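Example with several molecule types.
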Amino acid sequence: MSGMRTSKIGTIWFVIFVAGLAALPFINDSRSFLILMTQICIFAVFAMSYDILLGFTGIVSFGHCMFFGIGAYTSGVMLDRLDASIGTLLLSVLVGVLLSALLSYIVGMLSLRLKSHFYAMLTLAFSGLLLVLAEKWRSLTNGNDGFTFPIPSVMKDRTVLYFTALAVMVVMFLLLRRFTQSPVGRVLLAIRENEQRTESLGYEIVHYKVFATVVAGMAASISGSLYVLTLRFVNTTVFGMDMTLNALLMTIIGGVGTLFGAIIGASIIEWAHHGLSELAKFHPIFERWIIFFGLLYIVVVLLFPAGIVGTLRLWWLKRRGRRLEQSLQADSNAIRKEGAG
Amino acid sequence: MSGRRTDQADDMILETEGLTIAFGGHVAVQEVSLKVERNRFKSIIGPNGAGKTTLFNLLSGQLRPTAGYVRFKGKDITPLAPFQRTRLGMGRSFQITNVFPNLTVLENVRLAVQSQQGVRLNWYASAKAYRRFEEEAKHWLDMVLLGNRIGVMANYLAHGEKRKLELAMLLALQPDLLLLDEPTAGISIEEVPAILEVIRKVKEAGNRTIVLIEHKMDMVLDLSDSIAVLFNGKLLADGRPEDIMNNETVQAAYLGGLYDDAVASAGD
Ligand SMILES: Nc1ncnc2c1ncn2[C@@H]1O[C@H](COP(=O)(O)OP(=O)(O)OP(=O)(O)O)[C@@H](O)[C@H]1O
Ligand SMILES: [Mg+2]
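Resulting structure tokens for the full complex:
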């Protein structure tokens, strides 16, 4: 029953949080601020998708950007070649999701039966392959330079775009949370904790791992589609190692295994990105943002090994555990007294 | 009551034939041919390093044998993975505690209940919808005296408590064959009788087969319908407790003085 009360409190906080985000455009309508907030929402979805792998199932991927890139290019190409309508946009998101699901499934089936680093290596190989494909298939992608494309006219409004990204983030958060709390999601956690024991309880591990990678791939594809929608431009950077590293950093800094942590991690990294590029006007050292993220990473890993949200949660669980223990102790003392009396 | 039935081939829930595994040059289990009668209680004894746990690993599929086969419920299961054996009705507990450290005690057992109920690929319903799984998990936890620790993370449990959790997870699977690897090791003296009682209850329900690895001879003699002795990876003897106690090879090889004490205390 205390669990139910907790989840109710959690829901209230989440509603307040979302309401706060929704009110932002009315408080500060500067263009750069809205763009930043939109990016945060998009990368939060990408980071959550990575968290399904790393935090919930314990799978490491070095090529998660490939699904982000598939969504990005699918939406870019379809909006460019077909028409710039809402219908085409939605269709392109759907096609991207299906392509990503298919590729996730293939990569997963090829490698997830083997030792865990095979998946990491194979995703790295596939994302590299897709990067080369995007560079070489010039007729479709215009190579390294990329191409600009038109977007549906309502989406040209920064505020509309922000609300779209916010809505997608909230919906994805709720869907993924539901998934992680479902019977399958619980088995994913069990696999993360102790794979061999999970199998000995009667669960076929590879099914669950493939399931997790397919869900993560689909979610990443959606974030990729949204990303290029805000830029009205796509090039090969979407398949870059930086993208995967971003997701990894956001997930770890926010706290693995907590979807909300991915949102916090995305906010911090995107803010830092923004802040550093402002500072770069004063000194070029600040352009080397990877140095600062490296430092940030070290600080977080040293001070909060479970990430920011993860550390808070642990602290809270411990406190609750201690209170529970104390009340049980009191109970048993009372019983002992009764027995003695 | 426990009258002995006549030995019939189809009464064997588990059979091994020439089961052998070698780690490099070291043969840990050698040519073991063991039969376990359905709904009976068999203990496996033997000194440290005799190969008892390794034999369990071969039975439950954690290890593949170098030679020989395992037959369960009349079916050759040698090539099957552990999860397939579990689904056929074989469950085991581990000597070295093997739980989910960062999940709650309740969730550890709930996962076993969920598997037992066959809810494996449901990805949409919130697990909270499965309230009855939690109720059942609590039932098993109460049985092993962990009912007051359900909200605690498993890695905060004391060693003895982890052993009880291990047992609850096995019970929750409700397997037809229970492989118990030293279930009372590490449990405090006061609590051993309660755990023994749990095992006895399962035995007395009469519809399950139990194979127990145990060093405590009084417990073995008290519960077993038959005892198998493992020594240096080989099956030294297998038979009724009385026969094993009087078996000269067994006495010479392993039991010695220990054995006489056990008989004396069992005779009381
Ligand atoms: N994976 C392994 N690799 C190499 N050697 C192993 C392995 N597992 C077990 N052994 C060896 O096999 C032998 C039997 O070990 P096992 O754990 O089965 O003994 P046991 O009878 O269960 O002993 P105990 O009563 O102490 O639990 C030991 O010599 C052990 O070192
Ligand atoms: Mg052992």
